[in-house]
């Protein structure tokens, strides 16, 4: 067993004498349960992040309307808009930055979609069009071709600019 002559008993006695008289906080810290606050070291305090702003529907509507007209605001315009919407200038700045980033992502996605469609063969494009058009509104069956005329010409490529694309939410 665990009598006075056993090594386990000796180790237990040594440990109990070592930790006897110490504050409970130090014992818990030694066991890894909490920081060593009792020894004068303060726990590491993490900075609290500001909570996410919940914009009202009216604020978002006005911000969106302004964004459609003007992607960047002057400091005077920004302060006036912030005051009118009961927001801070920092909130308006952040909203516009996030909205420009969203527009950029949307445009890149749209360009990628257009490029992937342009890479499809003409027959596949006709099949896609037939799938998306309601019955009776699509281009209909292909007109007959004269023998030896070859394949369809490649689809026209369209370059899209930010001004030409209205990306609404």
From TrEMBL:
Keywords: Coiled coil, DNA-binding, Homeobox, Nucleus. InterPro entries: HD (IPR001356), Homeobox_CS (IPR017970), Homeodomain-like_sf (IPR009057), LBX_TF (IPR051892). The keyword DNA-binding applies. Residues 93-120 form a coiled coil. Residues 127-169 are annotated as: Disordered. Pfam families: Homeodomain. Residues 136-156 have a biased composition (Pro residues). Residues 160-169 have a biased composition (Acidic residues). GO terms for molecular function: DNA-binding transcription factor activity, RNA polymerase II-specific; sequence-specific double-stranded DNA binding. Its main location: nucleus. Residues 48-107 bind DNA. This is LBX1 factor. CDD domains: homeodomain. It is found in: Nucleus. One of its GO terms (cellular component) is nucleus. PROSITE patterns: HOMEOBOX_1, HOMEOBOX_2. Residues 46-106 form the Homeobox domain.
């Amino acid at each position: 067993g665990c009598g006075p002559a056993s090594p386990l008993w000796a180790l237990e006695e040594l440990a109990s004498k070592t930790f006897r008289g110490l504050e409970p906080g130090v014992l818990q810290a030694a066991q890894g349960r909490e920081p060593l606050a009792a020894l004068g070291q303060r726990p590491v305090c993490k900075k609290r992040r500001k909570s996410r702003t919940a914009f009202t529907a009216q604020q978002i509507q006005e911000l969106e309307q302004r964004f459609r007209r003007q992607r960047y605001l002057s400091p005077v315009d920004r302060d006036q808009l912030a005051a009118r919407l009961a927001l801070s200038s920092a909130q308006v700045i952040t909203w516009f930055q996030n909205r420009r980033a969203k527009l950029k992502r949307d445009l890149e996605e749209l360009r990628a979609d257009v490029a992937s469609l342009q890479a499809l063969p003409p027959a596949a494009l006709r099949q896609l069009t037939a799938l998306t058009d309601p019955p009776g509104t699509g281009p209909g069956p292909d007109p007959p071709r004269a023998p030896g005329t070859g394949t369809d010409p490649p689809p026209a490529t369209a370059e899209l600019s930010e001004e030409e694309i209205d990306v609404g939410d």
